[in-house]
Amino acid sequence: MSLVLGAIADDFTGATDLANNLVRAGMRTLQVIGVPRGELSLDDIDAVVVALKSRACPAPDAVSDSLEALHWLKAQQARQIFFKYCSTFDSTDEGNIGPVADALLDAMGARQTVMVPAFPDNGRTVYMGHLFVGDRLLNDSGMEHHPLNPMTDADLVRVLSRQTPHSVGLLPRPVLAKGGEAAKTHLDGQAAQGVRHVICDTLDESDLEVLAAAVVEFPLVTGGSGLGQALPAEYRRLGWLEAVDNAGRLAPASGAALVLSGSCSRATLGQVEHFLATHDGFALDPLALAEGNDQIEQALAFARKRLFAAGGGETPVLIYASAAPDKVRLAQQRLGVAAAGELVERALAGLAKALVAEGVGRLVVAGGETSGAVVSALGISELRIGEQIDPGVPWTQTYIKGHESPLSLALKSGNFGGVDFFSRAFDALREERLP
Ligand SMILES: Nc1ncnc2c1ncn2[C@@H]1O[C@H](COP(=O)(O)OP(=O)(O)O)[C@@H](O)[C@H]1O
Ligand SMILES: O=C(O)[C@@H](O)C(=O)COP(=O)(O)O
């Protein structure tokens, strides 16, 4: 059968999150890093997720990267395109959700798409167009302090309207409650009125199922990974997809265990604190990084001593720049927002490269932008998806040039994962010893 779904994800953790949900719903899924340059065999693959780093870059770059991914996916005959962004709708007034969605619609000659950011398994729901994280509105969830895209407005119709010249509408819960046909009629009615983007309410999995039934034949859908849980059943109903037993299996993991964290999201800050109560960690500070290479050398020495000395490597250690909002603000005031972020990303990416070369084989990275920087520095082009650690975060595996054993890699979105995620991730890998 041919490729069913082609997804374009605006960051690497988001790509893994979507790929994870597709695998769990029975789609054989390949995650590629950037648009593949050479030949790629897609035999026995149902979905490809192209991971871009287009969330926080200038909108024109995000548009051109996304269009390149679209053209590649269309050349692979993907039946439906999915533009994946964050379940917390991470963006600014400049974009990049609106400009990318508009460019994809234009390129595909489609008149309408849906916006379904919700991921109820992780507490992201939408009601009357307002995004909630757990029981808080988005603008009171911690996302208002995000270093790159502070989210200070929970009304997504209003947020998106600032990013697109086109009309933005709403598919409200009372319509969804009437089922897929009612939802489809509502969407058709909005399209007839020229509404190009429709923010969709979603409270739970049954809403996702109704939405999937309504939009399965849309050329382009957009949203978080929640919709990816529900679409595969619709593909099967249409006969586009075969039933598969186990869509995700990895080789056994080996090598020293390391956590790198550049996320300053509330969940990550809790995970860092919890981990440091029982494990060793090294804190990076952008102000020190701006002074030169000393802090990187110190971090390397810290990790080498614990990971590669005799008997080391089994217990994970943490290197982190994650810091509370006031500390982040201070660094940003002194260095500039983008420069502070880049300094940290470059440092963590360089550390990943050096330490993987020296024997780290199990690596957790926290943060979407951070994961993008690390994965790019490691020269990774494809990821296979394995077992889920927590909703939205699976173990993945890849081969690094010149290494015999695979690298096991978990890319954790900033706000995902339980408080003990960092240690539990490695426990899960040890217990599984996946065949
Ligand atoms: N202490 C710090 N000061 C300023 N910026 C930081 C600091 N620590 C991390 N950053 C930057 O904040 C951004 C966090 O984004 P990201 O990695 O996507 O995390 P999340 O997944 O939580 O959004 C990155 O660009 C990172 O380099
Ligand atoms: O949809 C989500 O929440 C995630 O898949 C995601 O994109 C998170 O991004 P980061 O928090 O920047 O990792």
UniProtKB/TrEMBL annotation:
Residue ranges occupied by any Four-carbon acid sugar kinase nucleotide binding domain in the UniProt entry: 258-422
Catalytic activity: 3-dehydro-D-erythronate + ATP = 3-dehydro-4-O-phospho-D-erythronate + ADP + H(+); 3-dehydro-L-erythronate + ATP = 3-dehydro-4-O-phospho-L-erythronate + ADP + H(+)
SUPFAM superfamilies from the UniProt entry: YgbK-like
EC annotation from Swiss-Prot or TrEMBL: 2.7.1.217
Domain Four-carbon acid sugar kinase N-terminal residue range list: 5-231
InterPro entries found in the cross-reference section: 4-carb_acid_sugar_kinase_N (IPR010737), 4-carb_acid_sugar_kinase_N_sf (IPR037051), NBD_C (IPR031475), NBD_C_sf (IPR042213), OtnK (IPR050007)
Keywords, comma-separated and alphabetical: ATP-binding, Carbohydrate metabolism, Kinase, Nucleotide-binding, Transferase
GO molecular function: kinase activity
Pfam families: NBD_C, SBD_N
UniProt similarity note: Belongs to the four-carbon acid sugar kinase family.
NCBIfam families xrefs: OxoTetrKin
Function: Catalyzes the ATP-dependent phosphorylation of 3-oxo-tetronate to 3-oxo-tetronate 4-phosphate.
Protein name from the UniProt record: 3-oxo-tetronate kinase
